[in-house]
Structure to design on (688 residues):
């Protein structure tokens, strides 16, 4: 599409421009950060909200799905939600709360307890880490990512020290609190130094019935030989619109596991931009989504194999009930010198209703000649033969369906390495199934 | 009153008529063999008894203990005591065999208004039963039938039957795909379940299985109805003469 004949700004785009003009002076960070914001917004404006004509946003037309820009969320009247602890009920984690896009230390566990980490409010952390270049993560030029850079209100910076093994998972809980819809733009940076081990959970939650908007971004840098498990839990309110961008660079010999579990939100897009920068990386990126009513959930990946001898596996499973729409886009790029890449991508959708829709687009772009790469996609209803087999043994129809759906989604959840988190997610899936029956 | 009465049963599958006025009576505790050529309707009969979808009964009646089962869902029939050992047991990825057995047993008991099995009692029951059938603890932990050999799948069917203790067991070509050693293990498992309280329908194409599970009565099925009934010697006769006399293809 030619920028010259771009459509007139939508109400949401106009709202974003007004918001930015009004807020830019007051947003945190001066100097370099302020010019980063200005530059990002300028670049955003040339294209506007991504729409179906932009290949990466083909199935999630933000221009159509985001009708208006909500006012920026403030900190007036925020109340501590009672149920943050319930998000990971079976896990002893260090809680880091981000409320309405800002770090809330008073609602967080004191991180001083673990000598392996240094955690601070994002802009304070950046002031202490001048060598860190914000906004250079993979995916930083994506339209939604640019919006986050323009409006980013805070979040945390976190460094996991070289060789440290962080005993407890770190749970960054993004919470929306308020009675009226607003928009929040949390941004966090996590630097995992070489040889360190950490389990990082990001969760998103907020009340039902309020069409709040979240545009979050996480910059994750994984050092050589480090091990990172990143789990993203989407429990947003049923009217929420959330876009979460993850930009990750992975160093040589690192083990990286990423998992996105989504049951909440009206419109959700998890987009992951990964760059495997060193050799002998072992990576898994996957997810499980259980959707109902008119939920629209999009998991989009762009994975660049930029070094030789790396293994990556992707497995995404989606259960779709009612009129829900599940989207998976996965692009694996194997760069010319990334020989001996071993990449396998699979996406499976289980449709529980005639009106549910699955859009799945796995892609491989291979520029090296000595690689093993494959991808697959399936979509279908519950196998009537399996259901009959279970029922013929006396299992009631709903229970048979529940067992089969649980088995389907459980294969993906099984990939979560942390036992307590895995158990929590399996229980959450069971609760979802229980609410269905 | 006979235990199972099938009266003038007509069944269509996708508009194709498969059973054509089948009439059959099974007494309590009786082991009845049903033999017949390919396409005679043997497997259709087993699926209609178990209540599979898309098997359209256009005429006739099936009475179990005098009660019509035609409007019952498969799980209700199972709770009433009907068990089908599948010719091709399906693989159920992600559902552990132990979970499957416990869910099935307790679901049936719940439907019948009986208390659920306690976990220790259930584990003991499965351990004792599976040992007799040469089913290892490792197999019980695996997903149902996933990665099982043909023989293991058939033994797993008999294990389920032994745990669920049906009053009417329908064995659909349980001998197919088994070598002679596997066949003996399966037949021993079935024979151990013979009881005056349990009727069995043993469906087979070949006489061989009936050397090991000796029937009380043999029915010959051809073109969707019973065309001949006799004692166990009828099976040997058929082995010698084939099914051509009933208008079916040669065995």
């Amino acid at each position: 599409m030619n920028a010259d004949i771009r459509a007139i700004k939508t109400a949401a785009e106009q709202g974003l421009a007004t918001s930015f003009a009004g807020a830019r002076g007051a947003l945190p960070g001066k100097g370099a950060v302020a010019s980063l914001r200005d530059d990002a917004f300028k670049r955003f404006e040339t294209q506007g909200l991504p729409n179906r004509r932009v290949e990466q946003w083909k199935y999630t037309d933000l221009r159509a799905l985001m009708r208006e820009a909500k006012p920026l969320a403030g900190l007036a009247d925020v109340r501590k939600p009672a149920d943050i602890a319930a998000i990971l009920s079976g896990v002893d984690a260090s809680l880091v709360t981000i409320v309405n896009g800002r770090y809330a230390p008073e609602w967080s566990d004191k991180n001083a307890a673990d000598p392996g980490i240094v955690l601070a409010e994002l802009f304070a952390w950046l002031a202490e880490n001048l060598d860190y270049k914000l906004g250079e993560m993979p995916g930083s030029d994506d339209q939604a990512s640019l919006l986050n850079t323009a409006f980013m209100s805070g979040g945390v910076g976190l460094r996991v020290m070289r060789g440290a093994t962080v005993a407890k998972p770190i749970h960054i809980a993004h919470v929306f609190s308020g009675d009226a819809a607003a928009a929040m733009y949390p941004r966090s940076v996590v630097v995992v130094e070489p040889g360190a081990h950490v389990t990082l959970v990001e969760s998103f939650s907020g009340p039902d019935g309020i069409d709040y908007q979240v545009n979050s971004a996480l910059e994750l840098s994984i050092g050589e030989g480090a091990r990172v498990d990143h789990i993203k839990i989407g429990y947003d309110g049923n009217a929420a619109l959330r876009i979460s961008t993850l930009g990750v660079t992975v160093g040589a010999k690192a083990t990286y596991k990423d998992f996105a579990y989504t049951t909440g939100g009206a419109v959700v897009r998890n987009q992951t931009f990964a760059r495997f920068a060193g050799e002998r990386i072992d990576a898994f990126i996957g997810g499980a989504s259980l959707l109902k009513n008119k939920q629209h959930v999009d998991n989009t990946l762009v994975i660049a194999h930029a070094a030789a001898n790396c293994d990556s596996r992707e497995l995404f499973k989606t259960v779709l009930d009612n009129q829900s729409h599940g989207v998976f886009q996965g692009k694996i790029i194997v760069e010319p010198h990334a020989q001996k890449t071993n990449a396998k991508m699979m996406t499976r959708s289980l449709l529980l209703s005639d009106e549910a829709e699955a859009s799945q687009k796995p892609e491989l772009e291979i520029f090296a000649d000595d690689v093993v790469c494959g991808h697959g996609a399936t979509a279908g209803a519950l196998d009537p033969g399996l259901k009959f087999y279970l029922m013929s043994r006396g299992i009631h129809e709903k229970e048979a369906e529940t067992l089969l759906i649980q088995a389907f989604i459980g294969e993906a959840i099984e990939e979560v390495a942390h036992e307590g988190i895995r158990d929590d997610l399996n229980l959450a899936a069971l609760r979802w199934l229980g609410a269905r029956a | 009153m006979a235990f199972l009465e099938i009266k003038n049963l007509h069944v269509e599958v996708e508009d194709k008529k498969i059973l054509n006025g089948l009439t059959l009576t099974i007494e309590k505790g009786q082991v009845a063999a049903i033999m017949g050529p390919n396409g005679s309707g043997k497997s259709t009969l087993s699926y209609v008894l178990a209540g599979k979808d898309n098997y359209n009964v256009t005429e006739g009646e099936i009475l179990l203990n005098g009660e019509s089962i035609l409007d019952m869902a498969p799980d209700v029939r199972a709770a009433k005591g009907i068990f089908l050992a599948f010719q091709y047991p399906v693989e159920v990825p992600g559902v552990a065999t132990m979970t499957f057995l416990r869910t099935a047993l307790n679901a049936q008991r719940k439907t019948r208004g009986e208390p659920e099995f306690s976990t220790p009692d259930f584990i003991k029951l499965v351990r004792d039963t599976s040992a007799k059938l040469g089913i290892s603890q490792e197999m019980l932990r695996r997903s149902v039938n996933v990665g099982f050999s043909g023989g293991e799948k058939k033994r797993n069917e008999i294990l389920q039957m032994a745990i669920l203790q049906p009053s009417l067991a329908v064995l659909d070509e349980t001998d197919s795909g088994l070598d002679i050693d596997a066949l003996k293990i399966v037949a021993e498992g079935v024979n151990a379940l013979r009881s005056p309280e349990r009727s069995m329908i043993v469906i087979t194409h070949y006489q061989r299985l009936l050397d090991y599970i000796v029937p009380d009565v043999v029915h010959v099925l051809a073109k969707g109805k019973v065309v001949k009934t006799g004692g166990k010697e009828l099976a040997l006769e058929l082995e010698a003469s084939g099914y051509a006399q009933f208008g079916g293809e040669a065995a």
About this structure: The mean pLDDT of chain B is 93. Residues 40 and 223 of chain B are 5 Å apart (CA to CA). Chain B has one domain: 4-246. Chain B touches chain A through 30 residues (CB under 8 Å).
